[in-house]
Amino acid sequence: MQIWKGYYNALSNLHGWADGDPFYVNYGGHPMHGAVAGYLWVQNDGKYRKAEFGNHSFYWKSRLRATAYSWAYSTQFEIGPLSEASIGKIQRQYPQQGFVDHVATPTVGTAWMIAEDALDRFVIHRFEDRFENLHAPMMVRSWLNPARSFANLLRLKEPWYRDTRAELRKYRAGTRAAALPKVREDGPHPSVAPFEFTLSPQYQLSRRSADSRQCFGGVGTAQWNCTARRRKSNLRLATDRERKPFLTFGPAPLSLPPSSHLATS
Question: Which long-range contacts (CB under 8 A, 24 or more apart) does 187-195 make?
């Protein structure tokens, strides 16, 4: 019972932001911890394991999944059943009661992961393509991606190991394009809207005279844009028949007499 009482006291004392740790611990060490947890998830994610940095949904979905795991991992480490709060009762002591680690570990850790991914694609890749030396790429891969390197050690791999390309002993300069995995897209985005609808009001005022009238009306147009698929390619039919509206309506104008002719009570 004493164990559960201390655990409850630690959880009930959580409040505020700071936890008394130095800046480099909260915003350096813990985010790196979150990045390592994220890479552990990526290494075991069969669907997105070979995602590389890029402006496509395949990569960003993989990192969002890693962020969710990093958050769960960090929460368990801080306040879970086997955590600082349950074993050490850390949070019941001042000033260890803040929430900074709960937020910074997964969020800044994800930013750390993205930074390492960008370095791996735009710096390390190019370095490997320029130098045939075996040991230099080993050091560059390990030093510029410390979180990924530590995650590799935890799965009993070399720090410079990559799931996205061949081992350094088999990798040869100039093979970057062949080593890059094929990115799977969600599908082509249609360039032509399948259905268009336009509605525009009309207002017309004749010249001022004794018989002048104010006219109100409107016109609407709806059309269906056709597309034809031929030999795995989209072919847009740009004929007049395709662009011709199949539905057109226009309310009859409403004529009002001049304001001078309106009777007032």
Answer: 188/234, 190/227, 191/236, 192/225, 192/227, 192/236, 193/225, 194/224, 194/225, 194/227, 195/222, 195/223, 195/224, 195/225
User: Residue 193: which residues within 8 A CB-CB, separation 6 or more?
Assistant: 225
Boundaries of every domain in the chain: 2-179, 195-261
User: Is the Cβ–Cβ distance between 218 and 240 less than 8 Å?
Assistant: no
Tokens of 110: 């994800």
φ, ψ of residue 2 in degrees (nearest 5)? -65, -35
Does the reported pTM lie above 0.85? no
HSE (CB half, 13 Å, CA atoms) of 151? Answer: 23
Closest CA to 37 of 126, 115, 107: 107
Q: pLDDT tens digit string along 7-46?
A: 999 999 999 999 999 999 999 999 999 999 999 999 999 9
Task: Decide: 69 and 113 in contact? Cβ < 8 Å.
Answer: no
